Amino acid sequence: MSEQLVFYAVFLSQILLISFYYPRQIVGRMKRLRETHPPSAYPKLYPRPAEYYTRSRRNYGRWNLVVLLLGFSILAALWLFSESGVWAYNIAIGYFFLQLIPALSLDLSFLREFKLMRKVDSRRKASLSPRRLSDFVPPLLGGAALITYLAFVFFVFYVQQFDFPWFGGYWNVVGVTFMNLCFGAILLWSVYGRKLNPHQAYEDRVAQITKLVRILLFISIAATVFVALTVTLAAWELRNLQPIAVSLYFQLLAVISFQAYRIDQANFEVYKEDPLSASPGKGIAG
User: Fold this and answer.
1) The model's pTM
2) d(Cα 133, Cα 210) in Å, to the nearest integer?
3) N or C: which end of the chain has fewer CB within 10 A?
4) 147 vs 153, 154, 218, 233, 249, CA distance in Å?
5) Residue from 205, 215, 212, 216 nearest 131 by CA
6) How many CB atoms lie within 10 A of CB 52?
7) Exposure string (b/e) for 218-241, b if CB count within 10 Å is 16 or more?
8) Tens digits of per-residue pLDDT, 113-154?
9) How many CB atoms lie within 10 A of CB 80?
10) The predicted structure's pLDDT at residue 193
């Protein structure tokens, strides 16, 4: 099987995974959340009218359907024109960013929900337990991310000596370093910044921060390895494999990032009218 057919199969997987499977999972969780934790019993979970959440869930599904159909159209065009080179590489990247639009829109809607929750409940709740970034960083995973970054720096220094005309040189280090600094800023804000959800239980916030740290560390490792792999393929004159690599990389990012939507052990008792008098419980299973 040629690399062209392999790319078509991998790109089809990207379409189905990111624009069909995961959106379907998210919509299903939203429905189960509404069924198992209705507004009548958990009023603080729904600062807007019930029709808004039905419409929002429907719009999210429709946007993903549009992106899904567009993906099939792109794949058909690539097949007809037998394209798997630079065009395929750029199309895979552009389509991935298009696939992100519904998810980013959903995340922004969550942020607006939290703002409304704060307006409804102006009380500020804070834990007296001090939080440190080191409490949330798994030593093995953090060490792996650091070693991967340092190995990448040495890798760039090694490749630089060959004077490849296409090689970006030390700008690769600058880009990867900037990415990790952005991740670090997000983590610092998550640990020490204001709590977005005013009703969130302290244990749930700790679990959320821990999950975010793991996700960002995995993404840091994956992104650094991907940049090194792209340079290696170019150096070995295997650029025809880059479209396959980039599509697989985007699917890996999707698998990692989807963990942020899991709410398996969330405590929804805090969204009741009087959470102090309620017994502790668990959220829906994802």
Assistant:
1) 0.86
2) 10
3) N
4) 10, 11, 13, 22, 20
5) 205
6) 13
7) bbbbbbbebbbbbbebeeeeeebb
8) 988 888 776 555 555 466 777 788 889 999 999 999 999 999
9) 8
10) 84
Q: How much is the mean pLDDT over the chain?
A: 88
Q: Encoding tokens for residue 106?
A: 């959903």
Nearest Cα to Cα of residue 160 among 73, 85, 231, 92: 231
Mean pLDDT of 260-272: 83
* Cβ 281 vs Cβ 44: under 8 Å: no
pLDDT tens column, 25-82: 999 999 999 999 999 999 999 999 988 999 999 999 999 999 999 999 999 999 888 7
What end-to-end distance do the CA atoms of the chain give, in Å?
A: 38
Share of the chain above pLDDT 70, in %: 90
Decide if pLDDT at 283 tops 50.
no
Task: Enumerate the H helices of the chain as residue ranges.
Answer: 3-16, 22-36, 50-80, 86-120, 139-160, 171-192, 202-235, 242-257
Long-range pairs of 183-186 with CB within 8 A, sequence gap ≥ 24? 183/216, 183/219, 183/220, 186/212, 186/216
DSSP assignment, residue 258?
A: G
Residue with tokens 């337990």: 129
